[in-house]
Write a structure and sequence with these properties.
The chain is of the alpha+beta class. The protein folds into 3 domains: 151 residues, Sandwich (Immunoglobulin-like); 220 residues, Endonuclease Chain A (Endonuclease, Chain A, 2-Layer Sandwich), CATH 3.30.870; 263 residues, no CATH class. Helix content is 22%, strand content 24%. It has 16 helices and 32 strands. The strands form 6 sheets. The protein has an 18-stranded mixed β-sheet that branches. A 4-stranded antiparallel β-sheet has the order 6-3-10-9. Strands 5-4-7-8 form a 4-stranded antiparallel β-sheet, with no helix packed on it. A hairpin with a 5-residue loop joins strand 31 and strand 32. Helix 8 runs parallel beside helix 10 and helix 10 runs parallel beside helix 11. The N terminus is likely disordered. InterPro entries: C2_dom, C2_domain_sf, PLipase_D/transphosphatidylase, PLipase_D_C, PLipase_D_fam, PLipase_D_pln. Hydrolyzes glycerol-phospholipids at the terminal phosphodiesteric bond. It is an enzyme of class 3 (hydrolase). Its cofactor is Ca(2+). Keywords: Calcium, Hydrolase, Lipid degradation, Lipid metabolism, Metal-binding, Repeat.
Length: 809
Amino acid sequence: MIVDLSKDHYDGVPVIVWFLPGRGVRSSIGCPEVVQGIEGAIGFNNAASRLYATIDLGKARVGRTRLLDDHKNPRWYESFHIYCAHMAANVIITVKFDNPIGAEVIGRAYFPVQQLLDGEEVDEWLEILNTERKPVHGHSKIHVKLQYFDVTREYNWNRGIKVTRFPGVPYTFFRQRQGCRVTLYQDCHVPDNFIPKIPLSDGKFYKPQQCWEDIFDAITNAKHLIYITGWSIYTEITLIRDRRRPKPGGDISLGELLKRKANEGVRVLMLVWDDRTSIPVLQQDGLMATHDEETANYFRGTQVNCVLCPRNPDDGRSIIQNIEIGTMFTHHQKIVIVDGELPNGDRERRRIVSYIGGLDLCDGRFDTQFHSLFRTLNTTHHDDFHQPNFTGTSIQKGGPREPWHDIHCRIEGPAAWDVLYNFEQRWRKQGVRDLLIDLRDIDNIIIPPSPVMYPDDHDTWNVQVFRSIDGGAAFGFPSAPEEAAKSGLISGKENIIDRSIQDAYINAIRRAKHFIYIENQYFLGSCFSWYSNDIKDEAINSLQLIPKELSLKIVSKIEAGERFMVYVVVPMWPEGLPESASVQAILDWQRRTMQMMYTDIIQALKVKGIMANPKEYLSFFCLGNRETKKRGEYEPFETPEPNSGYHKAQEARRFMIYVHSKMMIVDDEYIIIGSANINQRSMDGARDSEIAMGAYQPFHLCVKEPARGQVHGFRMALWYEHLGMLDNRFLQPESVECIRKVNKIGDKYWDMYSSESLIHDLPGHLLTYPIGITENGEITELPGVECFPDTKAPVLGTKSNYLPPILTT
């Protein structure tokens, strides 16, 4: 927690006292006699309205109670575990009447943060005050218990995963599972000529795996069940496209493959997000072009059970909030669950295998580590041309296509059943009827949750499943707040939420010792700490803590005199027309997030008297490609509109590689992979539904020596893909030598990408993100780079005056 002690001054300048990010505030709220005499004071006596309370740190809403009907003697008795990284003078408890549209404030109680910092439990009655900070009519009070836990006193703070008995992230719905196996995937496919020689411990070398090939085999070999969820699923794609690695029946489309399996008696259930902007009557695809109606129509009348799932709100929402959730938010989980063979070759017994990550089974996703723009338009991408960043694009007009970089994983063992349970909760909530297989009826065939690795096997994994989801999307969440808390869930206004993905990121950042490597489609949040005068924090409400946790982690390392480095890879811009209001708004939020982080870092460096480049502690990158023309390339029949962005990119032979990954690696020992972006939509829990996993290998931890297990090999393979080389300096990402090397390469590749001339292919794809940083941390344009190449889109974004922030954060 960070506390602003504004009463202390030095030479007339406010002194900010920095406390390391606290583990959190634990609080409980009771409220006897809170409303006695209030109704008369505010002239409100509506028996249909109900009471609830909120918890704020400064202007950041961090907790909310359930609704109560008892106006005269309300008692919540709710507990909260709140992660803190805020600048706040008080913990603020606000009591409100809930109305069908909006809410009416009764009053607020304040408790000074400074009085919490000794870590002792506070048990007090707080007086409820009006807007003038005077007691409300009747001198009503609220009873609270508060306790602050300093993160530096946590056992795992700054120590990584110290012991093999590490219990996992606390206060979560799913606990950590042992004895698992995890397979990590970079992109849809890895061709045989992508061969980075990456040494691991135990004398082994890292071996990349083929994602869509493995999913094809898993679906093909399933005997009892195939369960799939997706933001988008397109029936016309094929999963096998590498002519050097053919498979029997590999030319079948996904839709035909699923119908064939269903006709064989396999239970095929699909939950596909229902884009409410798609119009079945007009056969019109929605704004997101997810093919939802097309997919549903394809399977109608077949043995495949495909359900279109709108993002329904949970109870306890106002009319306006219901509309927001139903039209603005999505089901974003990408899951495939099958029954698979046992490793010992037993042909009768089966086990559960789950796939999760960032890859949807739809068009525009298939790609390799080479991310070609033009050279696969005759082959792999001729019937899968995807370019939504310009108007009027088509295969007839030619490239550049939009290359796609993504990350996915396979989970085997007990954690695979947690993914299955998530699907079952969702199906029971939104499935048309209960078609789920009761696995207890076939427990003689499908073995129950059990380890797939021996405890002493050095390749074993510990895995924990996390989610962002609420009771509007998952069946069976407890309704009582105390039961929800015991289940690792968050309660508020009759809305029960699983927000464990954000918790997992926070915990991993706080444990980190040396470095963090992030790839994500979006990077924005912690708006409570943005340094801006033209916005109100409460209007933006992008409160997720991850960016602030990262900057405070770096600050803590600077203060301790230790090296620490954070690498962040994002797309050049969010997918879509780069000049559009929505894309520009997101870039604006991203700029404010970056600026907040660099300001924190530069201030810490100044306090320590260190003259250093802040990019040697935090660096942002994007991916791009540029290709010379080769003989035999696809020749388009038409040409783009002259002087359009499409035409300019085609002439320059360049385009961004779209980063769709949702991954974080910590110290080469711990990895998070899932569907969740680093924005409020994904991390909120009550907005987009998401799923992720956090995993490590107990025999490959960063304790006395650097970790050299599969997580390390995966990061090095990603760096080989992005940088086009391996270098011994990459073995220590936290070192100044490493980040200087990476930044130098990123600068070189950006200059080659943005140059007017093209002589050779880009030797790698990692580009320095094109921003400048002032000595105070302000994000500025690079000289001569106001807009992204071949566009009229400002790099720094533009604040939208009409799009609601809830849509773009």
